[in-house]
Every structure is written in structure tokens, then in C-alpha cells.
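Lab meeting prep.
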Amino acid sequence: MAVQMPFGGFLFMHRLMRTCTSSQRHLRHGEMLVNLTTTRQEIRTFSTSSVRCNNKEREDSDSSRLSTKLTSKQALLARRRRPLSPLERISGLLPQDALSPEVMQLREQNQQEAEGGTDTQGSVTHRTQQESGHTDTLAADKTTPKGEESDNHHASDVAMVPNTSESRTSATLPGDSLIVFGELLIAEYYKKGQVEFRKMFKPQKGTRLHSSWGFILHDNIVGLPAGQFLKTSMGLPILIRRASLEDYVLYMRRAPAIAYPKDATTMLMMMDVTEGDRVLESGSGSGAMSLFLSRAVGSKGSVLSVEVREDHLRRAMLNYSRWRTSWSLRREEDWPDNVQFHNADLCTASSLLAGQGFHAIALDLTNPHLVLPTVIPHLHPGAVCAVYLANVTQVVDLLEGIRCLALPLLCECIIEVPIRHWLVAPARQKNGRYCTRKAPILEEDHSEEEEEEERTDQTDEEDLAADEHPAFGGVPYIARPCPKQLSHTAFLVKLRKFVQ
């Protein structure tokens, strides 16, 4: 027989159950808070001990090198775990029975990652110790005095570090030499195959080669073979080579105008100067013709150079001495000292030429017909007197003087030596690619097949233009005179002495 509970008793029992449930919930929350507090204390204790340990290690490793500090920091970074998500933090505080299957799977993955991190930490620590030990070994090798090094260690250092001077010397050919301080060099910058910059200089310690395209230290030039491209401070290539006699004559300091190399070499051919000859030069000027004559006669011959002006003679002597010094540094042998400079006027200096005979005579004077009566008696019969004249009116005066004085001279020729520079280079487009030859069109009407062939030819031409090295004969060339030409310099008169 069921007993009916009054409505008030039902309400009492319901409140009692709610009170028990809430008390159990409070007890569970209290346990959770206790566990959370304990965990935080353990974390604080661990972090405090780790910080103290790190401080102690840092104090002990103050004398270690920077590389060891970096590797220890990398090891500490490897020990740190990634930050936990809110779900992972809550699941770590709850009992295992109250977790869902998804949370249990997540906890297992975290444990596996923790185990893998421990293995990685051990490997990183071992690698760090190896790196630090290797660094210490290198540091010990660098700090070891030279006197305490073993023979094997010294031999290994020599084998690992090549001798730059020996490699540079071995790279030169027999008879060649490296660039040294004091010799004359030429710096050239090429743009589109044309020389945009050319300068003659003498390398010196601690100086620079300046140009509009940047600078190069002279110390970086010395010790290299000639004929190399060096990068300037702006990254542009400059060709460094030795100065030839032609370069030196064109770029040396001048007093009066020089006899240009094209005219000087022609005069040498006119006079047929060979080694061992004795040559008379009147009009030293800046010393250009004196240098060409000095090289032509060699060490067995001699040149007598006469100049009426002292300042011109001084400049000629300085230029001659400067070239001889550069030559001795380059070839490690002396340039023949076979030129005798004199300050005199040949019109009244017959005593200077007394008792001397010459195989050839070179005159570079304003009025050469005035000195002919003095110099022609000392010229060997059948020899040549070459005269350098700037104006054609001077040529007329010379011939008129020979006629009036009835000198034993025969005018063989009067010439001028023109040189015409040409520009011959492969044709290029604006983008730098090579142009291509176009085949001629034989018929005006084209079928579809011919149009397809033309399309294929166009694609082939485009591929050829993109190629850096097209096939032989596939690139057209530009061939025309250069816009800048060397104009008239002088008239050369060849006079040969005959016996009356």
C-alpha cells in the first residue's frame, strides 16, 4: 500500500538533494583548486630552479666564447615546450574518468610529443657540446704561439692556405713580369666596343686611380699580370695594361707639339735607321722623336738631339728619363742611354758637329732650310734627311732654299700620312641582343605553306636573337668610318744626299 507524501515533504526532499549535489560540486571544485595550486607551485619551483641554474651556468661561462653562448641559448630554446591551449590546460586538471575519448586522444598525442622533445633535447645538447668543443679547439689553434706549433700542424697550414705570390708568378708566361710600383700603366674603359676613358698613370702606395666610373686602389693593381679587367668602386670593369711607347708619347707631358707616332715611324722608314746608326736630330721638342730614334739605333748606336730653347730641352730630358725608369722596372733591364741632349742653335754650332758623321738626319724646325748648309756636310753620301713640316708653305720655302743654295739634295717625295679609323662591330638591338640576317623575298605572292615557313623562320630568328653566341655568319656587321678622325698633322719631305 503506497504511502502518499505530503507536498511539503516533497519540497524538503528536493531541497535536500539539491543541497547534497551542490556540496559535492563544491567539494570537487575545491579539490580541483587544490590540484591547480599544487601544480602552479611545482611550475614556479621548477622555473625558479631552472633560472638559478641558468644564472649559475651563465656566471661560469662568462669566459667562454660567443659561439658557445649562442649554442647554449639554442639548447635552452630546444628545451622549451610550446604553449598549451585552454582545452589542454583544463583537461590536465580534470581526473581521467571524467574525460571524453577525444580529450584522452589529445592527451596521448601531447605525451608522445613530450617524449619526442626529450629525445630532440638530448640530441641538441650533444650537438651543442660537439660544436662548443670544436670551437674551443679552433680557438686553441689560433691562440697557440708560432714557436709552440708542431711541424705537422705548420705543414698543414701551408697546404691549406695557398701562397698568392707564387700562384701569381706561376700564372705568368716566360719572360713576363707582374706589375710593380713606379712603372707606367694605361687604364681603359670600354663601352659598346669603343674606348670611353683612357688614362696613363704610375701606381704608387696608398693612392687611387680616379675616374668618372669609380676608383681603383693602386695597391690592388700591383702584383697582378698586365692586361686584366678590374672592377671600380662602382662595379665597372677597367682594363689595366702596360703603356707602350706610342701610348707614352701621346699621353706624356708636352712643351711644344710632338711628332705623332704615325709620322715618326714613317720618318724612320724614310731614313732607314737600323741598330748601330748615328743620327742627328734638330728640334728635341717634347722628346717624342728622340725616344723613337733611341729605340731604333739600340745600344750600339747614338742620337745627338739639339734644341735651341732651354725649357723645351728640359721637358724632353725629363720625358726621356721617365720612360727609361719605367722600362727598367718592367723588363728588369736598362733602356739604352744613347741620346745626348744639347742646348744650341745649329745655324751657329758648327763646332758641335766638327769631326762627326751621321747615317741620317731628322729636322723638326720652323725654317729648316736655314740649318741645311751646316748639317748636310756631316751627312753620309746617299743618306736621307727627313724633314717634318706642319704647313705646305714651309715645304715651298724648303725647296726654294735648296734651289737657291744649290745643295746636293734630291727631293724624292713629299707625303702626309693620313689614318682613317673605322668602326666594324656586330649589329645589336637596343636591348643588347644581336641582330639577325633577313633572307630576301623572291616572290610577291605567298601560299599558305610559304606563310607557315616564314612564321617558323621568324621564330628561328627570335631564338637566334636571344642566343648570346649566334652561329658563324648569322649576325650582320656595322662597317663605317668613325665619326672622330685624326686630321692633318704634318708634311714629310724626304731629301737624299748625292755626290756632286
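Slide two material, second protein:
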Amino acid sequence: MDADELKVQRLNVLLLGGPQSGKSATGNALLGSVDFPSRLSPGAVTRECRLGRRAFPAFLRRQGSEVTLQLRVLDTPAYPSPGLSSEQARERIVGNVERALDPGPHAVALVRRADVPFGEEDARLVHLAQDLLGPAWRSHTLLVLSHSDSLHRAGMRGEEYLKQAPEALQALLESLGHRHHFLDNSAAWLQIEGRPLLDKLLAIARHNKYQALQLR
């Protein structure tokens, strides 16, 4: 690396999730912004890919110097969703990743609601991720369990929730190296949610030596 490259670290994050999963809200938490439309709706809010960017000065230190984090987050169409086939979802995501996330995603946030039972739609989303990114996607992915404030209101802790999770969800989590994050959608960004989530995704990228995933 030359001197300028040492001062900047790029992190490309790909968001995957179903309708009303909290996927776009997760992107907004990462960016500390409202770049991505996120609202209560009877159907999917995100039908096209959207790119959000933010620079975080002095986010890291490398060889005694401050390093700026250049974050790019690609929100993707909610899947599975009525009117959107897996082929259509794949085509839209591949084209936008090639244009917006060169050289590819360093980390993937797989987002699902903590307050909704794990089911067939989750299996279809996992199949899409596998089809897009190949087997290496699991080593680059963080499972984001959104709406964890619902668990808090029910008096349930995250550890208890995971112990009671169905076998399919536990198997998914195990395949991801138990990497997960509970996202409280009612919380403020900087103090509570955004930074810990970003730190976990950055740790995944660092563990993989910032090697980007290649779409198939």
C-alpha cells in the first residue's frame, strides 16, 4: 500500500432481506442517515437497488495514523416478494453490485425480523444468497435480527431467544459462525445501534483480509 491507501479503508456492504424485514433501516443505521426509504407498509418498500455512501474520518488507526472509513452500502429489492422472481432479483442485484460496489461486497448483512417465525421465505432468501455469491458468502455474512425491541418488550433476552429458536434458524446461525446482531429499531443511531453493527461488519471484512466476494 502507498501512503494514501494507508489513510483510507473501504468497506462495501450488501444488504439482503425480505419485505418489512428492517433491511433498509439496517442500512440507515450503518450510514447514520435516512438514505433508504423505510416505513411500515403492507408490502415491500424497496423494489430497486439503492446505494448509500458515507465517510467516517479517523474511524480506525493503522501504523500509528488515523484512517478514514469509506463506507458504501447497497440496499437491494426485498426478496422473496410478490411479482419478483429469483431470476429478476438476481439480475437486479448483480448489475448494481458490478456498477456500485467494485470490486464486490466485503460483507453481507442478512436481515430478518426477530419477532417473526423462521420459515420458507427465509430459506428462499438464503438460497438467493448462495446462488448470488457461492459458498464463500457464509464467511462474509452477519445475520441481523431486526426489531429486537419487540423481544425487550416481551421480557426476552437475546440469548434466550436464540436458545428457543427453531432448528433451521440455529443451523443457519451455526453456518455463519454464530455471527449475529440484534438491531433495536427504536434506538438512536450513533450511541446505541450504528457503531456496534458497523464494527461487526468491519471485523468480518478484516477477518477475510478485505477480500471482496465475487458474484457468480
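Talking points for slide two:
The radius of gyration is 17 Å.
Confidence is low (pLDDT under 50) at residues 39-45.
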